[in-house]
Structures are given as C-alpha cells and as structure tokens.
Write a structure and sequence with these properties.
Radius of gyration: 25 Å
CATH architecture of the largest domain: 3-Layer(aba) Sandwich
GO molecular function: 4 iron, 4 sulfur cluster binding; metal ion binding; molybdopterin cofactor binding; oxidoreductase activity
Helix content: 25-40%
Protein name: Nitrate reductase catalytic subunit
Number of helices: 27
Structural class: alpha/beta
Largest sheet: 8 strands, mixed
Bound molecules: ligand MGD, molybdenum atom
Strand content: 15-25%
Cofactor: [4Fe-4S] cluster; Mo-bis(molybdopterin guanine dinucleotide)
CATH topology of the largest domain: Rossmann fold
Keywords: 4Fe-4S, Iron, Iron-sulfur, Metal-binding, Molybdenum, Nitrate assimilation, Oxidoreductase
GO biological process, one term: nitrate assimilation
C-alpha cells in the first residue's frame, strides 16, 4: 500500500517491523516536485545519496532535462528503497539560481568573472613559478569527502607524482581520520570490518558518540524496524544528549565531554572481571591482551563514575549488556572521533570486539563509521594523508609497487615523512612555507576550528588560494581563483559508503553552462602542467570517469580495497557491491576478518602503529616484535583529562554537531526550501537545570564565548546533560546580510568561531567536541521559539517546552512510501538509456 508522509514532520517515515535474522522489508520512498506525477518522469537515472555516508541507492527523476525528484532503489543492499529527508529534498540545490557558472579571478582586490583559459593559466603559471622558485613543498591541496573516486585518484596522482608534494589531505581529516587510524591501530590496515546487514542479526547494538537517527537516518529506520519486530536488539547509547537513539536505548550513558576513554576502560574492566572474555579468539587472533588487563585493572565503574559523572551502576549495566551479547554490533562516530583522546577511545571499542570475539560473523561487527558520502574513497585513493591503496609510506616495497603502477621512479613520490595532515598544512600556509593552496569541495572558512584564524590565514597576500565549488561560499570569497564545478547528478563517478559498498552515480542532467566536472578540471590542469611518467608518456593517460576507474582498479589490485572485480556495467546491476571485489570474491565481500586478520602482517600492514596517548610513531622493528604474525592488536590506553576543562570564566563544556535536516555548511540543504525551513538558523541547547539557574528560557538570545571567539544564537532548553552546551555547526554566513563572516552588523553565528585549534595526537583529527565556554544573555526572546527542530535531539524539554510548535514540512514535504519495488518497465527503460549513455531528457 502506498502512503504519503510529511517527511519533515516524520523524518523516519512508517515502520516495517521485522524479526531477528529476517530480511529487512522493502519500502520505496519517492519525492517528486509539486506538480510532477510519476507518469511525467521521462527517465530514472542511477545514483546514490551524497549527503552522508550511508550510501542509500536512489534514482534521479528527470523530465525535460531537469531533475524533478528522487526515488530509493528497492533492490539495493543498503537501503531497500528508503531515503532520508536530505536525500528526498537536497537535490534541489543543484538548480539554485546562484550556482557559480563562470570562473572568477582576483583583480585589484575583487573577484571578477573570467573564462576558463584565463583562470587555468593563472593557476598553471603560479604552480610553475612556485615549483621553480620554492619547490613542490610550496604547493598544497586540501580536498574533501564529497567528490568521486575517479576524481580523488586523479588528484592523488597529480599531486603526489606530478607536483611531487607531500601536502595533500582531505577534510576527511576532520571527519574520518580517527576511523581510519583506529582500524590501522587494531587491524594494521584501514578497512571497515562490519556490514550494515549486521543490524539484522545483532542482539545488542551499541552506539558510541553516534547520533545515527539524524546522521544516517536510513540505518536508524532499520534499527527502529528491528525494535518493533520479534526478538528486538538491546541498544546501548553513549551520548551526552537526549538523541532519538538515547530515547530508545536500553541503557543510555551521558558522560561528561572528553571522558570516553575512562568510560570504555571501565566497560572493558567489567567485561574482563565478569569473565566474558573469549579466550580462544584472543589466543588465536590477537596480541596485547595481557597489557590491556594490567592497564584496566583499577578502572572500576566507581572510578569511572567519578570521571565521567555517570552512575557506577549504570556503567555496570552497560557492561552487562556488552558482556552478555551473543552478537554485538558497535558503531562509532564523531562523539568519539572529534572528542578528546579520539583514537585511544575508538581503539577501545575495537578492543571490546576483540576480547569478546565479536567479529566477522553476521551480527558481530564493528563499524568505525564514516561521515561524508565519499570519504572512504578519499582514503583509499590516497587523497588524504595516506598513500593510495592503503600502502604504507614507510615500507619501501609499497612505495616501489606504487611507483610501478604510475610508471615513475619511487623517489618521485614523496615518502620522506608522513603525508602532511590538513591541520599542519594550514599551519604551513599561515607560516608561509605553503604558498599555493588548492581547496576542492570543502568550505574551511566555516568548517575548520577557530574561524578568525582561518579567515586571516586564507586572506594573506602571499598565499595563492584556489577554490573549486558550486557556490560563492565563505571560503570562495577569500580565493584568488574560483573554479565553478559541476556536481552529483551532473557528472558520473563511483563512491563507496561506510560499509564498503560501491555505487555508481551517473550523470542525469547537463551541468549548468560554464561549469565543469571536478575530474575534467583536474585532467585539464594535469595536461597544462604536462606531467610525464618516466618514459616520457603522459603521467595521467585517462580521459573520462570510466577510464579513470579502470586506472584505479590497477592501483587497487592485490590491496585490501581491491576493485578489480568491478566494472561500471556491473555496478549498473541491481545493487551496490562491497569491496574487496576480485576473482576470489566476484560478488564482493560482506565482512572482513571472517577468517582471522588479513592485513596486519609487518610486510603488508599500512602503518607500524603509534602510541595512543602521545601519538609517537612506532618503528618497523617494534612492530615486528609486537606482531610478527600479523594478528589484531589489542592496544591499551590510560585516560588523561581533556586539555581544556571548565573554569570560573568558562564554566560550561561546549560541543557541536548536526541536525537531521542539514548538511554541514548548508550550501546544499540551505538551498532546499523544506530543509531550510525546518532549521533555518543557529540555536544553543541548554539543559533544564542550567536554564533555571540562569533564568534563561526558550528563544532568549545568548552569546557563547570561548577564548577563541563568540557566537550568538537562541536558547533551546533540552534534556542535554547539565553543564553542557550544544551548538549545530551548520550556520555560516552566505545567507546573512554580510555574506562572509562576523562584522559589526552580523555577530558570529558559526560554531567554529568558538572551537579550539587542537587535535588528536594520533589521528590529527581536530577536537570539535571538547571546549570550555561562557554563556551570557544578550536579549530576552520575543516569545518566538528557537529555530531548532522538535523532532530530534533538540526537542524542547522543561516548562514552556510544550508551547513550542512541532516541526512540520507541509504539503511540499510529502513523500510516498510504497512496498512495491520499481516498476519493471522503468527499470528496463533506465537500463537501456544508461547503457546507451543517451542524454534524452531534453527532447
Ligand atoms: N543530517 C546530517 N547527517 C550527516 C551529516 C550532516 O551534516 N547532517 N554529516 C555527515 C558527516 S560528514 C558526518 S562526520 C556524520 C557525523 O555523524 P555523528 O557523529 O552522528 O554526528 P554529530 O552530531 O557530529 O555527533 C554525534 C554525537 O556526538 C555527541 N558527543 C559530543 N561530544 C561527545 C563526547 O565527548 N562523548 C560522546 N560519547 N559523545 C559526544 C553529540 O551529542 C552528538 O549527538 O554525519 C554524516 N551525516
Ligand atoms: N564545529 C564543528 N565543525 C565541524 C564538525 C563538527 O561536528 N563540529 N564536523 C567536521 C566534519 S566531520 C566535516 S565532514 C566537515 C565538513 O565541512 P565542509 O566540507 O567544509 O562542509 P560542506 O558544507 O560539506 O562543504 C563542501 C563544499 O563543497 C561544495 N561541493 C559540493 N559538491 C561538490 C562537487 O561535486 N564539487 C565541488 N568542487 N564542490 C562541491 C559545497 O558547495 C560546499 O561548499 O566539517 C567539520 N567541521
Ligand atoms: Mo564528516
């Protein structure tokens, strides 16, 4: 039966309950523009969602050469047809009237429109000049987790072997570098062990600092459907806010910010104390258990209760749930990765799985989650601070192998030091050793910590800044050259979600006139720079997405992320496919480590490891003696208190994060009317107790300040833990009167005005989730509520909360939900159109 639902008011739609070990029922979600009926749609074009890492498969509806809607794909393993609110409405931003359509160059201090040849000439002549005068180390590339695999791979080759710079990283540094690092520390190599299908089989699901309900709403629908079915799982939620996950949890722990390691050590202590260790697994597959046992000996729940401000009995209950699980699935995200002792904490979650033998079986898995839709590919392709194909920069064999793939001398690939991490690149730019910074698909003037510093650093005269984006973002406004890019829906490429599922997203419509796909921009630059291999041939011989994909397959061959069994045509089949996919596993691989640990051997591992507290690198000799046989490594870590704690001047803890309706700096979701209206401006979440004590109420305007800066927003009183403030980081300045940053008329509203320049010593991921702050009243509210959703973690609580009107979307926000799969005639028609590569939308 079809039904229509307001998907702003009901972000997760209707339930389709199912029992443990059953198949998750299909529910196809469709949203078409008002006035368009399914019969009007001329083509459905294959894609997957690009506004989170879930990888929900979808088809884009095309009519008269324009996108008119989207529909989830029933047959896909990831979403079984479902879509979240951002997927349903976010695509509208593509057609926004303020898309950049001409390159811009800075002339007499202002950005002026120009043509592509002039803009590219400027970049090329600056690059050549810098290479000659200062060498490759003067050029840096800061990319994203939102382009396609083919684009990252091309960028990695041109930066690492073409320019020969070590300064290439992604905003994945802000996002999933801890995930990657935690996997490397425990398993010797990046690569997600678990699978989303584990949700179907687990009897315990533990979410650590992961607001799954809002940030991967489709997998949350899956959890909700299990909770309503037979033999539902028990949920453990570790989050200081009353998220929807917390509300449905069997046990919810709301620890003091930055104390994850203390809590996890206590959970490990209890699991060991109560005899829940799988000694056979530990013996067969791990090293380091004795060390862990010693380190956590004194980490009792009573000790952790004090550190974390969580009742000891509750910690014991949580440990009991973890200890008694028959199939445990854990997920980890930014409440761990961006908080104090990020990697140390993430690794302790791996440790729970290792000592309990909870890996490589249906329902028993760990998901060190990704955030951005294509962050996995940034990592695989080495467009982050790693070498392509998870190769180890310290292993000469790996570098030689890569050099062979690229047909260059090994010395042409910088490997004298670890690839530079983004926070260091910005530091180099600030200090003047990096003189050209090429920023693609990211908006650091809103998303990096301590924005006043970032603005001033990007504005320096001596730094040549290139920005490649869809819009004139806060960052683009500071650039010397702005390149207008085409995006998802307008270009073709592949990307891989958090559980290693690869999808193909095809071009559905022509990009706006004047824009170019990122791949074409990188290829054009490489051609103009005339990068050569060692035989004098072009370094980058490919010319389009599919040939780039084929080139990447050769680079991935024999590596953990082996793509050799995939082709574009195969990806046009019914479902996305999980890597590794090769001759041994032609249909892909559901779970890693089903049969022991595969990549941790000293000769194959991606890293030799780091000290979890200091970040100091281990040597190959140390690694060989610790782990000669390539087992999983149980690495212990002592808790150390956060660097910045509350003080008399700054009595609150401040954390930042997301709401379900918006994506990052809102360049897309802020331009989708339904999403914009659901959460149009910043707010500040304050606990019931703190609001009462300071006489603050719903809608009051407050200032949140830290030693770095301040922001203003309206109060939403919620069930957040006392002493903690939460500010969503989505709100930059592009849609404010000033447009660029705080000035006299527009006081700051971006969360990152206040965050600190500090990072995890191991993963180098910035700590957006641990700071001390002051809170002051600026102005009483006028009776209007804060612009915060009521459907989510920001739901109002306490007196007055009931007067806040519920968040709804109205008629333009309805989507249909249908139990029927895609109509066969559609599928056949789309398949033919896709195979012929026809662009028939505009007839
Ligand atoms: N709607 C939406 N979805 C998205 C995105 C988006 O912008 N909007 N972005 C995507 C991306 S790139 C990412 S990285 C993911 C992020 O997805 P999540 O990590 O789920 O999102 P966050 O809101 O950043 O943080 C999650 C939770 O961490 C909690 N937290 C804060 N500090 C601590 C702490 O010290 N300890 C613990 N245990 N918890 C803490 C917060 O209360 C918050 O609820 O979402 C992806 N999906
Ligand atoms: N305080 C605080 N700060 C945070 C976080 C937090 O939780 N708290 N989270 C961090 C995390 S996890 C992340 S991932 C980052 C995200 O931070 P950003 O990456 O800076 O945020 P986005 O708004 O996604 O920026 C992406 C940019 O790429 C552009 N774009 C989109 N598609 C394309 C394309 O196809 N081609 C090109 N060339 N451009 C495109 C968009 O218009 C946009 O300007 O923020 C980080 N910052
Ligand atoms: Mo992210």
């Amino acid at each position: 039966m079809d039904s229509s639902v307001d998907r702003i008011a009901q972000p997760w739609g209707a339930r389709t309950p199912y029992g443990r070990h059953d198949a998750w029922p299909t529910r196809v979600d469709t949203h078409l523009k008002e006035g368009v009926s399914p019969g009007d749609v001329q083509r459905w074009v294959r894609a997957a969602s690009i506004l989170h890492s879930d990888g929900d498969a979808m088809d884009i509806a095309v009519k008269d050469g324009r996108m008119v809607g989207v529909r989830g794909r029933a047959e896909d393993r990831v979403n079984h047809g479902r879509l979240g609110p951002k997927d349903l409405f976010g695509w509208q931003a593509n057609a926004s009237s303020d898309r950049l359509t001409r390159p811009l160059v800075r002339q007499d201090g202002r950005l002026a429109e120009t043509d592509w040849a002039t803009a590219m000439d400027r970049i090329v002549s600056r690059s050549k000049g810098l290479l000659q005068e200062k060498g490759p180390g003067s050029i840096g590339f800061y990319t994203t987790g939102q382009l396609f695999l083919e684009e990252y791979y091309t960028l990695a080759v041109l930066a690492r072997a073409g320019i020969g710079t070590n300064h290439l990283d992604g905003n994945t540094r802000l996002c999933t570098s801890t995930a990657a690092e935690a996997l490397k520390e425990s398993f010797g190599c990046d690569g997600q062990p678990g699978s989303y299908d584990d949700i179907d089989h687990a009897d315990v699901i533990a979410l650590f600092g992961h607001n799954l309900a809002e940030t991967q709403p489709v997998q949350w629908m899956r959890v909700l459907d299990r909770l309503d079915g037979n033999d539902p799982p028990r949920l453990l939620c570790v989050d200081p806010r009353p998220t929807q996950v917390a509300r449905r949890a069997t046990v919810h722990l709301a620890p003091r910010l930055g104390t994850n390691v203390a809590l996890l050590n206590a959970l490990l202590h209890e699991i060991v104390r109560t005899g829940r260790v799988d000694h056979a697994y530990v013996e067969a597959h791990t090293v380091g258990f004795e060390e862990l046992e010693t380190r956590i000996k004194d980490c009792t729940p009573a000790w952790a209760a004090d550190v974390c401000d969580v009742p000891a009995a509750r910690i014991a209950e949580a440990a009991e749930i973890l200890g008694s699980a028959d199939r445990l699935l854990s997920t980890v995200l930014q409440g761990v990765y961006q908080s104090h002792q990020a990697t140390a904490a993430a690794v302790q979650i791996n440790n729970i799985h290792l000592i309990r033998g909870m890996l490589g079986r249906p329902g028993a898995g760990v998901l060190q989650m990704n955030g951005q839709p294509t962050a996995q590919n940034t990592r695989e392709c080495g467009a982050n601070g790693d070498l392509p194909g998870f190769r180890n920069w310290e292993n000469d064999q790996h570098v030689a192998d890569l050099a062979k793939v690229w047909n260059v001398e090994p010395k042409q690939i910088p490997h004298y030091a670890p690839p530079t991490h983004a926070m260091q690149m910005f530091r180099y730019a600030e200090q003047g050793s990096i003189r050209m910074l090429w920023i693609s698909g990211t908006n650091p003037a809103v998303s990096l910590p301590e924005l006043s510093r970032i603005r001033s650093l990007l504005s320096q005269e001596r730094l040549f800044v290139v920005v490649q984006d869809l819009f004139l973002t806060e960052t683009a406004q500071l650039a010397d050259v702005v390149l207008p890019a085409a995006t998802w829906g307008e270009k073709t490429g592949t990307f891989t979600n958090a559980d290693r599922t690869v999808h193909l997203a095809e071009k559905a419509v022509e990009p706006p006139d004047g824009t170019k796909p990122d791949l074409d921009i990188f290829l054009d630059y490489a051609a103009r720079m005339d990068f050569r291999d060692k035989d004098g041939g072009p370094l980058i011989p490919w010319h389009d997405p599919e040939s780039a994909f084929e080139a990447w397959k050769r680079c991935s061959a024999g590596r953990p992320c082996d793509y050799t069994g995939l082709t574009y045509d195969k990806l046009r089949g019914p479902t996305g496919i999980q890597w590794p996919c090769n001759d041994d596993a032609p249909d892909g691989t559901e779970r890693l480590y089903t049969d022991g640990i595969s990549w941790a051997h000293p000769d194959t591992c991606e890293t030799y490891g780091k000290d979890l507290v200091t970040g100091a690198s281990d040597s190959v000799v140390e690694y060989r003696s610790l782990n000669p046989d390539g087992k999983a490594m149980i690495r212990a870590a002592d808790y150390v208190p956060p660097h910045e704690g509350p003080s008399a001047d700054h009595p609150f803890q401040l954390t930042t994060g997301r709401t379900i309706y918006h994506f990052h700096t809102r360049t897309k979701t802020g331009r989708a009317p339904q999403l914009d209206a659901a959460a149009p401006d910043v707010w500040v979440e304050v606990s019931v107790a703190d609001a009462a004590e300071r006489d603050l109420g719903e809608g009051d305007l407050v200032e949140v300040s830290t030693p770095r800066g301040a922001l203003r927003g309206r109060v939403r009183v919620t069930g957040i833990r006392p002493g903690l403030l939460f500010v969503p980081f989505h709100y930059g300045y592009w849609d404010t009167p000033a447009g660029h940053g705080p000035d006299e008329n527009t006081p700051g509203r971006a969360a990152n005005e206040a965050t600190v320049t500090d990072w995890d010593p191991v993963s180098k991921q910035p700590l957006f989730k641990t700071a001390a702050a002051a809170l002051t009243l600026v102005e009483r509210g006028d009776g209007r509520p804060a612009p915060a959703p009521t459907t989510t973690a920001s739901a109002p609580s306490g007196t007055g909360g009931e007067r806040v009107p519920a968040t709804t979307g109205g008629p333009s926000a309805t989507a249909t939900q249908s139990a029927t799969a895609i109509r066969p005639e559609d599928a056949a028609q789309s398949a033919t159109a896709l195979r012929n590569g026809r662009e028939e939308g505009s007839q």
